[in-house]
Amino acid sequence: MADGIQEIVRAGDKDLFLSTLFCPAERQVDLFALWAFHTEISRIPLLVSEAQIGEIRLQWWADTVEAIARGESPDHPVARALADVVQQHRLPTGPLLAFVEAKRRDLYADRFPDVAALEGYLGQATSIFLQLAAMIIAPQLASGASEAAGYGGVSFGLARGLALHGDRFIPSGLSKDEAMAHGRKRLAQAQAAINALPKQLFPVMLPVALSDLYFTQGRTPPQWRRQWRLYWAARREQV
Known about the structure:
- This protein has 12 helices and no strands.
- It is mostly helical.
- The protein folds into 2 domains: 107 residues, no CATH class; 130 residues, no CATH class.
- Helix 1 packs across helix 2 and helix 2 runs parallel beside helix 12.
- The longest helix is centred in the middle third of the chain and has 23 residues.
- The protein is globular, with a radius of gyration of 17 Å.
């Protein structure tokens, strides 16, 4: 089952797949389980032809997360892997449920009314997963990762959002250049916070190293560029 979970991430989110390969080998299976859940939920709005169908699928996952919180192990490979990780690492399920709820917004492709709404969404969609990954890789240190995860998730999420979805990730009242400038500001804050973390936590923050590539190219960078950027960030232990 572990290989199948890893394949879901490899096929569905190359950034998360590549960055996880730089994490300690003994934690990769658990991290891939977390990212497989993230990938499964994130692609629902992209696959459904009608918002109502997406609502049904997201509700199934919301119910599944609640079942996991009750200690149940649902009959779905990603859900079972997630349940195992939640139990093993004592992860909170509230943020996972909030993520499912946040993804309902993606079914309708509405623009964000302001920067605060955008950052709130990115916090639920990206930042919280960096924090949960920190709890998996170094639970005794994870409480100190909130600032890095917060800024890092916003910068990485906004960089990819602008590249993949364009106008929808430009809050009302801002131009694309202003939105990008805001993202770069959050990236600078993320870099400072991440580079000050204990080295044990650094690997799970590696996706943030790709933010500047997305901001610069305005589209999904070629895989070799992403691999190279991740390699150098991991080698220098700096995003």
